[in-house]
Amino acid sequence: MRISYEWLGDFVDLDGITPKDAADILTRQGVEVESLTMVDLSQIVIGKVLEQVKHPKSRNDLWVHQVDIGSRVQQIIAGAPNAIPGALVPVALPGTTVPNGRLVKDLNIAGYRASGMLCSAAELMLGEDHSGILILDRGTPGQPLSSVIPSQAIMEAEVTSNRPDCMGHLGIARELAAGLDRPLKRDFMPAFTGTAEPPGRDLVNVSIEDPDLCSRYIGGVIKGVKVGRSPDWIQRRLRAAGVRPINNIVDITNYVLLEYAQPLHAFDLEKLEGPAIEVRRAREKERLLGLDGVVRELTPDMLVIADARRPVALAGVIGGEDTAVTNLTKDVLLESATFSGPSVRQTSRALGLRTEASARFERALPPELALAGARRAASLIAELAGGAVHRDWADVYPRPQEPVRVNLRPALIDHVLGTHVPLEESESILRRLNFHVKVMGDGEWDVLPPVFRLDVTIPEDLVEEVGRVYGYDRVPPTLPGRRHETWTPLSPSVDRRLDDVREVLAGAGFTETWNPALVSGARLEELRIAARAMPVSNALSDEMDTLRTSLLPSLVDAVALNRDRGRIDVRVYEIAAAFLARVGEKNAQPEEPLRVAAVISAAASAEAGAETLRALKSVLDGCVAALSAPTCTYQRAAAQLFHPGRCAAVVLDGRQLGYLGELHPTVTAGARLEGRLVAFEIDVEPVLAASRIPRAQPLPRFPAVERDLAVVVEDIVAAGALLLAIKESGGELLEHARAFDEYRGAQVGEGHKSIAFTLTFRSPERTLTDAEVDKVMSEIRRGLEKRHRAGFRE
Amino acid sequence: MSDSDASALTSRALAAIGQAQTEGELGRIEVEYLGRKSGHVSRLLSNIGQLPAAEKAALGKAANETKRFIEAALAARRAELDASRLADLAETEAIDVTFPGPPLGRGHIHVLTQIRRQIETVLESLGYQVELGPEVETEWYNFEALNLTAGHPARESWDSFYFSPDLLLRAHTSPVQIRAMQSIKDPPIYIITPGRVYRRDPPEATRLPYFSQVEGLAVDNGLTVGDMKGTLLYMIQSLYGRERKVRIRPSYFPFTEPSFEFDVSCGICGGVGCKSCRHKGWLEVGGCGMVHPQVLRNGGIDPTQWNGYAWGFGIERMAMLKHDVDDIRLFYEPDLRFLEQF
Q1: What's the pLDDT score for residue B167?
Q2: CATH code at A407-472
Q3: CATH number assigned to the domain comprising residue B217
Q4: Taking CA atoms, what residue in B is nearest to A477?
Q5: Residue from A24, A31, A161, A499 to probe the interface with B (highest B Cβ count within 10 Å)
Q6: B184 in a domain, yes or no?
Q7: Residues of A with CB below 8 A from B223's CB?
Q8: Whether CATH 3.40.50.150 fits A494-690
Q9: Is the same domain home to B218 and B123?
Q10: What distance in Å separates the CA atoms of residue A251 and residue A266, rounded to the nearest whole number?
Q11: Tens digits of per-residue pLDDT, A126-144?
């Protein structure tokens, strides 16, 4: 909301309070002033145009003016034609900086001297209009502009959604008055001045069809108005608040909106059929030509104001062009109503049309405000546009606003704030904010909030009122601490425990990425991993319309992105949840398994892929080991995204965690990547569950014996199976077995391969003899021969 | 063989040792003179068996002396050679120490993970526990339980992604607060709830439809606004340095009463106002407030017996403030050139 500092002076004495002071008080009290723009008009002088001729040489439309600035006559060139002889205009002389920041210089334009600048409203920061020179109503040439237009200070403030009353200058002034402890010079409810006969309610028939959507509708009648320009001060204030002046009637409705925060609308009474006002839902196919010149198709969930025949306004959003006040209007129906916030918001969003009015109704206005706004507007219209205000207006008020009383134990204030606020000060603050405080016999306070503060309903709300005016900077910071009899011992979170994994991965050269969980559903379909995907029903774009079921596509993209930026070897990982819909359970929260996934790039050759796969397996084993979980085993498997011949299921204690392998060539090609990608993706919760605190083992006292064994088997026999067999036959003396080489070729024959193992033997009780080791070795050979038809090479 | 033979042998050996320049030469000299079988000293004694007893003793003594002399001379010369070799190291073994090492190829932990860790560490030191919860939430936990009923004007700020009318991506980690109150049941409750959240805002330099938060919740008896302020100050000073100040400013959230925004004094100008804080002196960090009694009730806590405070802020925002990052999208674009800076 744009606040004019000068306007606030109508309601509260700002003597000695600079705009900056006012902005600080408001911010401290909860109306955050985001920017403060100072417009100094004392450096601009008033000039009177004596002569205006077209610049004879310039190809652009330029006008040469002779301007009387009191002491002398200046020659000034301008591009707008509206500064005709006799006009009073703002003049910025050379050397002056105009409020929009431009420095004026002495210029020579195609042979003509230009000694100064005639200013538009926009250049003076007095409004948006930059189409012509600002023409003044009054003023003496040579005097500073500030003699007729006070210097301005415009505050841009953010008003929270619970405070519709602060969407007007009066509400803002009340905050300042409370903060400064100065009286507010305006009562909330103006007197009613209508006396003309017959009663207004006999001149228009008002009905509300849906009281849920409109809790009050006041239709005031003012006859015989004279539509014309508003006085300068109204126009100036509207401009300062960012509203374009139209005519006096419309300007007054806008003025009151900016003052009281009550949106109003003026109809040309003669153009209303009936004349009747029906507040109802739009009917199918009804349309409305809005004041903005746009025809809109309406739907039955929109609330409209209709006359006897057709909609004439969209309730709380925009008025209709057909019944608008024009220069020919004589009689005015003034609407001041209370529409439901959600309904106005819905309509305004459906039409993509946000107006000053809708912005206020959305916050749920109090119905009592409608009366205050209507009265204020009526008296301004009578004063500035003439006309007779009729007595006893139509006021349909099906749901009168109930006063809410709040009981407050004043000790609560100190208890919540954590500091001592004297009772008198608390009471004074509440009174300054227009709350009525009655002290009861038992010391409790019976508090009646003002009618425009629907947001105050519980004692804590009153504590907040006191606290924010008292000043939270006066509350000393403390740390809570007491003698607790119960507590929860610290246990690291799941994510925190995975920091051990992050360290292993960092050591192995992998960089962590955080990727969006919302991805393209079409891409998941294409990759055939969409079976349990959850689509968002109101996605922002196709690129982010579904929750990912795997972290791997994001990591493939990460490789592609870094390749595009010149990186060849990329190692990335992510730790995050995947989302898997529960099959057959609509409306159930999905499974959110926390996963670790990593991708590493490899060269294009088959060998490079195989070698990288083994390297990545060591990394995965390292991650699992860092969590003190048992070692995983790997089994040949087939899985989406993975190469059919190069994929292993990762198994821990008989439970499958996920997959490790090369990514399918189509996945790699789909991301336009050359070479191979090797990856793993596993669920980590089972690993954490299997984690055990490592127990120290006694250090070996006797030396180990190492033997190598080259095993020749058929190609299809897996190294994992051989290792298993070795371990089974090796018994207690076999401490460790490791495969270190694989060979295919003439020496082992077609369809066969040789795998070399290093076996380590040790006894905890004695130094092993060769004979003992030989015995175990032959057991192992026998086992391999029997189970895998293995041969041996020396 | 006589004493004079022995002394001649000694002076020959000493001369040779004196001229030796390397360890190799000394080794050869050692073998030549002191070799067990054919060394000169051994040969001195070769016919000792045929000598009379008195001569035997004298010769034995002379030979031993000779051996000791030579050994001492060898050791002395070796020490000399060693000393001169070590004295020359600066020339003889010099390398170009400015030549850069090969790349280590270490990976990097994501800057948001690092910030999250730091925040957790600071708050754990005050006795807060980390609590996590689902990212796909029900309408009740995400909104209703937090006084954000349908049609509430404040719902505007929490525009969400829906899967069905009752199921959505959480717009904040506050649902975890409700879940934690329900599961812990008996205060005191001191928790923090880090995690990913989602809002339906189109991506731009300052906001994304997905980001991460850390919220905190304390439920105990007799907690005050001052306690909340102190906790935030402790956290901010621990993360950014003890010269930082915290300001709380009244604001509005339906789930706290009173509600505040909290600001941190600008680290560049120290609070007097500069370009980077838009001349405010303060940087907005997050929201906070005293937990609304109805929210406590929704979490199964009796508000007549307990009260609480809560706060929340974006992890990205904290990272941006700490590391001068000016575009939030960088955190979620896995560009190693960015990620490797931290």
Answers
A1: 95
A2: 3.30.56.10
A3: 3.30.930.10
A4: B230
A5: A161
A6: yes
A7: 480
A8: no
A9: yes
A10: 10
A11: 777 778 899 988 889 999 9
User: Does the CB of B143 have a partner CB in chain A at under 8 Å?
Assistant: no
Cα A223 to Cα A370, A379, B69, distances in angstroms: 20, 13, 138
Please identify, among B46, B64, B92, the residue that sits at the C-terminal boundary of a domain: B92
Closest chain A residue to B235, measured at CA: A479
- How many other C-beta atoms are found inside a 10 Å radius of the C-beta of residue B227? 22
* Chain B interface test: which of A499, A511, A554, A623 (most B C-beta within 10 Å): A511
Q: What is the pLDDT of residue A362?
A: 92
Decide if A341 and B120 are in contact by the 8 Å CB cutoff: no
* Cβ-proximal residues to B90 (8 Å cutoff; 6+ apart), any chain: none
Which residues does residue A705 pair with via DSSP β-bridges, in sequence order? A761
Given a cut of 70, whether residue B297 has pLDDT beyond it is yes
**Between chain A and chain B, how many beta carbons pairs sit less than 8 Å apart?**
244
| DSSP string for B47-90 | TGGGS-HHHHHHHHHHHHHHHHHHHHHHHHHHHHHHHHHHHTHH
Residue range B180-190, pLDDT digits in tens: 999 999 999 99
- A610, amino acid identity: A
Query: Is B229 within 8 Å of chain A by CB?
Result: yes
Chain A contact present for B194, CB below 8 A: yes
Mean pLDDT computed over B230-253: 94
| CATH number of this structure's domain A705-793, picked from the four choices 3.20.20.70, 3.40.1190.10, 3.30.70.380, 3.10.290.10 | 3.30.70.380
Closest chain A CA to residue B221: A482
Which pLDDT belongs to residue B153? 77
CB contact under 8 A, A511 and B188: no
Given CB atoms, is B27 within the 8 Å cutoff of chain A? no
CB contact under 8 A, A496 and B117: yes
Q: How many CA atoms lie within 13 A of B16 on its CB side?
A: 20
Per CB-CB distance under 8 Å, the chain A contacts of B230 are 477-480
Q: Are residues B27 and B55 in the same domain?
A: yes
pLDDT of residue A207: 95
Q: Which of B226, B227, B335 sits opposite A561 (nearest CB)?
A: B335
pLDDT for residue B104: 80
Indicate the pLDDT class of residue B4, thresholds 50, 70 and 90: low
Among residues A534, A661, A544, A545, which one has the least CA distance to residue A610? A661
Inside any domain, residue B102: no
Helix runs in chain B, H state only: 3-19, 23-34, 40-44, 53-87, 89-92, 111-124, 139-142, 174-184, 225-240, 293-298, 315-323, 336-339
The low-confidence residues of chain A, meaning pLDDT below 70, are: none
Do B233 and B140 share a structural domain? yes
CATH classification (class only), A45-150 = mainly beta
pLDDT of residue A109: 85
Where are chain A's structural domains? 2-39+154-180, 45-150, 200-396, 407-472, 494-690, 705-793
Q: Are residues B115 and B31 in the same domain?
A: no
* Nearest CB partner across the interface for B138, out of A479, A480, A589: A589
Q: Decide if B166 is inside a domain.
A: yes
Q: B64 and B155, same structural domain?
A: no
| pLDDT at residue A58 in the model | 75
Average pLDDT score over residue span B280-297? 94
Residues B165 and B285 in one domain: yes
Nearest alpha carbon to residue A739 among A751, A728, A729, A754: A754
Q: Give the total number of structural domains in chain B.
A: 2
Q: In one letter, which amino acid is B297? A: R
Whether residues B163 and A535 touch (CB distance < 8 A) is answered with yes
> Which alpha helices (H) appear in A18-162, and where do they start and end?
19-29
Helices (H) and strands (E) in chain A, counts: 20, 39
> Residue B210 is nearest to which of A505, A509, A516, comparing CB atoms?
A516
Class of domain A200-396: alpha beta
Instruction: Report d(CA A15, CA A453) in Å as an integer.
Output: 28
- Does residue B175 form part of some domain? yes
* A2-39+154-180 topology per CATH: Phenylalanyl-tRNA Synthetase; Chain B, domain 1 (3.30.56)
pLDDT of residue B3: 55
